[in-house]
Model the fold of this input.
Amino acid sequence: IRSLKQYDPSYVWVREECQSVSDRYHFHLVLLMNGNETQNPWGHLNAAQKHWARALGSGSAEGLLHLCQPFSPLSHNQAGFKIVRSSPDFQVKFNETFNYLSYLAKVESKSPTDGVRSFGCSELN
Done:
């Protein structure tokens, strides 16, 4: 069994107001991992659902987590982007990933609330 440390995870999250129902929020999370150590984002999603269910004291967290699939010819099996620094298409994939993740920075649906964090990230080493 691999330890989480091997994956070298980093994350960024934002809180976003639901457009359909005011005063309701959801969260977007980007998880960055060492692609040399992991190839399967679906396994990480399943593990996250189990941990979230346990944290909620529920038998299931199904439907509470959703893996957003970038429909891009550059995404890795449409389950995320894998950027390889030594690859000839590095810059193209980096730009595509950057554009996809720019969604997190949009301000229209962010409703700052006093005393409530709207975004966060892991500490980069």
Q: What stands out?
A: The longest strand covers residues 10-17.
